[in-house]
Structure formats: structure tokens, C-alpha cells
Amino acid sequence: MPEKKALLAGRVVSNREIVQGHLVMTIRLPRAFGEPLPGQFVMLRPKERGALLLGRPFSVYDFQPGRRSVTLGILYRVAGEGTRALSLRRRGDDVEILGPLGRPFDVSRHSGNIVLVAGGIGIAPIRFLLEHLRKNHAEARSRISLYAGAKTASALIGLEALEPFCKDVHVCTDDCSMGHHGLVTEPLEKNLGSFPADDTTVYACGPVGMIRELAGLLRDHPVPCQVSLEERMACGVGACLGCAVAVRGPDGGRQYRRVCREGPVFDIREILWDEGTGEA
Amino acid sequence: MMTDPVLKKMDVAIGTLKLKNPVMTASGTFGYGEEYAPYVDLNRLGAVVVKGLSLEPRAGNPPPRIMETPCGMLNAVGLQNIGVKAFIREKLPFFRDYDVAVIANIFGESVEEYGSVAALLSRADGVHALEVNISCPNVKRGGVAFGTNPDMAAEVTRTVKASTDLPVIVKLTPNVTDIAGIAASVEAAGADALSLINTLTGMSVDIERRVPHLRNVTGGLSGPAIRPIALRMVWQVVRRVSIPVIGLGGIMTARDALEFLIVGARAVQVGTAQFVNPRACMDVLAGIETYLERHRIGDIHDVIGALKIEGEP
To answer: Within 13 Å, how many C-alpha atoms sit on residue B112's CB side?
Structure first.
């Protein structure tokens, strides 16, 4: 009988607020965690759980292997009670982690032109992806461009760490505090025509509005685009069917896929948008 | 510390269905078994109850489908499933490599559909019992009407019994005034066993946006929040019927499972706890064994129904 996987005990190394309501938690874990791939996520919760039961899903933001233990970083925004509880953890507190989970970004096909699109907290998996590309594809010297958007300049987290590895960086803020005023898809739309369709891959993560805009843009441009989605989740392993995303089935009809299992990374063209609500 | 399995008798019978131990997984919380196979040695379980099956595939409800609430969660998955035929073809063969009882949970939108699903599963190789969901509160045209009316609950039971030779477990809804009355009616219609409770219908609102947290508005509440209610209902039903009762509802630990066994449940199902800890059912099983050891009890049957109430014989 092969060794069974289990919920792992982790210890908070640091839990730092970067800007208002946005934190980076660094967690030390046993090596049994393995090595996460960009786009994968973990289910994380405090060990002392009180009235809260379920873990919350977070994309891997940073990962450092080590000889005796490994270190995982997650970037998160306080959005509800689960993330609020996590934000109160201090150095030395115990957490429980399941992972790495889900289907990662597919980086097997080399592209000369890599376009990263991140909205808000969606920068988390994009940052980890960029690091992976930089380490593993250095010799290939792809042209990497980054389109990053946020509500305000201070919420453009980790931008300075990413910039050196990108040929060009396009920044957008909702409040004009930095870069272009407006949606991150606007500068992208301008440049889209110049991307070689057979040698470009777009990787994206961000709020549903951004993903929808991006899907609309790419309708007329045959550029492959992988997008990491977010949905409420209970189990993270495909059993609860809570994290459903609507896709076009083989017969053209509406079907649901599990963000935790078939995703969180999807081909943006698979997603079926609800005409009424604009939601996936 | 490993406990010696020879010392304790853990096996129980649900009608003609023999189980290694009284711990099973609850339908809808364990997928089709394979989702948790990396975490759980399925061979050690009393039984696996798979996700509810209907005659045709069902897409399920649009998201958001779940919401965490204090000590529990609401779900409105909408009985999404691949359909009974695809289950038999694609999912059931997975269990051939395991020595575990497989209980197929079934539901239908009509009495005839219940019968058809039961008949198909009876002909399949590798299904050991049926659990009939007459209680899922999520689907407007679904089981809700059957499970809340004693006569309709009995009619479904009779139809399923007539369509299969497998042991039939009827899963009861708590969203009724008199659950023991429904239980008695289902027993009289020929059910081999009962399982209870299914989820309690609930609701939660996002006060900032003033919208329901679930797209379906209401959903089924599960988790420890419902455990005292589930326990009370199991206790009431056990006193009313003579067929075996399987207890479930918010069992997170062995302590919780033992409560159900002590009030008279022959077996238990672990559900929402799996979402918190994928090995929850293994921990429950190990904890029950430790309890038997600590109390020097050699047979789980000495715990089942061992509740002492002052003034009662």
C-alpha cells in the first residue's frame, strides 16, 4: 500500500500586511508537501478553528524547497471570515494545509512571446509562474510582457520584483494613481494585433470582470490563453462539487467543471458566460 | 500506537449487508470514491456511499453553490451527477481493486425513475446496497415531495424494493414535523434500513450586496451545527422502528460517531468532516477502536443502543 497523502501541519513563519487588507503568509511545511507547479493551489486553514471549519483555497505565490522542510508563500486579501481568521495568525501559529492541488498552467509548449495578465490579487499565481519560467526557460529567452492592474498603485503587489524579467510592463489602476487609468485589458487590446498568433501564449488571473473582458478580446484573436479561476470551495479534491464553473459541453450545452480538479487553470475559450449576469 | 484488530469485533450488519465496521462515507461528500483514494485506504472503510445517481446526467445548479456558516456549510449543488449508466460504465470498475462495500445513492423525479435506477444498479456488478434519497431539499421537482409525505415515501420504497434484490436503505429528510412517522411508514413499505439525517434547509445573505450567498437562494445545511438535531432524530427513530438505522449529521470525530452509536445507530456516515480533513473517516474509525479499548469493550454491539436514561428500563 503506497503512503497515503494527508492534511499537513504547517507553521507560520511570517504573516505580513503589505498594503491595507493584503497579506503575505509564509509557512514552513514538511517536505512531504512536494513541489507545487505554477497555477496549483492549497487549501489552508488555522489549526485552532473555532466556528470555522473549511479551509480556503490559495494559489501558490512563492515556494522555497529546503533540505529538512519547505517554505510556502501565499498572497491573500481579507475578503471574508476565513481570510480574516488567517490574517490574525502570528509567527509560530499552527496551520493545516492540503496540497498542492489542481491542474497547473501548461508551460510545455514553448512560446517566443509570453503575455502575463494579472488583475488585483490575481498577481499571486502569475508571480509564481514568472519565477518558474525564469528558472526553467531561461535559455529559451522568450519575450515576456506583463499587464498588471489593481484598484490603486499600492495594491500592485510585487511589481518591482517582476519588472526586471519582463521586456515590457503595462500598469493600470482604477484610480489613476499609477500607469494607465482603466482596465488592464485596454493596453492589451492595443498590442494584441502585433502578437504572433502561432508563437504567443497568454496566462491570466484576476477578477471575473477582467477574465470576461479578456475572453471578449480574444474572441477575434486566435491566441492561446490559459486562465486561473477562483470559486468558493469546500474540499479542494473534487468531491463536494461546490466550485463549479460553466463550460461548453461537447454537445454545445452547459456543463460544469470543478475549479479544484479540472482547473483552476482553464482554456479561456472553454468558459461559458452567463448572458444575464455576465458570470461564468 | 496501532491497536490490535483481533481484540475487538467491529463488524455490523445492515440487513443482509455485512460491514467490516460501522464507519461509512456519506453520499455527496466522497465523490465516486476515487477522489479520496489518495488519502484514505478504502479497504478499511465499512462502506463507501457514492454521490447520488439519477437515470440521466444532471448538470447541477449554477454557482455559487456553497457557503460556510457557523459550524457548518450550506450547499446547493443541485444533484449534479453523471447519470447511472455512465456511473456503471466509468466509475464502478474502479472499486474492483478494493475490498469495500459499495452503496449507490439514488434519486429520481418520479417513482418510475427511482425504480429504473434501482433496476440498472441491481444488474451491475459491484454494488452491494442502495441508499434511496427521498430527501434532497435542493431540487424543486426532486425528492422533497417524496420524503415529506409518509404515503409517497412508502410508495418510493415499495417501488425500489420491487426493482431490486439489493438491501434498500432509505435516507430520510429532517425537514419534516414527525420524522419517526415517516420512518415507520418506510419500514412498513419494506425498507431494509434507514439512514438519517440528510441536510436541513437553510439560507444565508450577503448584507453588503443584499443578495443570497447561494445562487439557488436556499441550500442544505450540514456540519456540526446540525449534529444535536440529527442525534435527537436518530434517537426518536430508533425507538420507533426495528430495522437498522444509520446515523449521520455533523459527525467530525469518533466522539460524535459514538454518540450516534450509543443512542442506537447501527452504523454512522462521515460527511462534511471529509471536506475539512480528507482522512476524517479513518480518524473516526481509529477513535472508536481506541474507545472500545479504553472501556475494555470487545464488541461494538455492546456500545450500540447502550444509552442509559434514568427511569427507563
So the answer is: 0
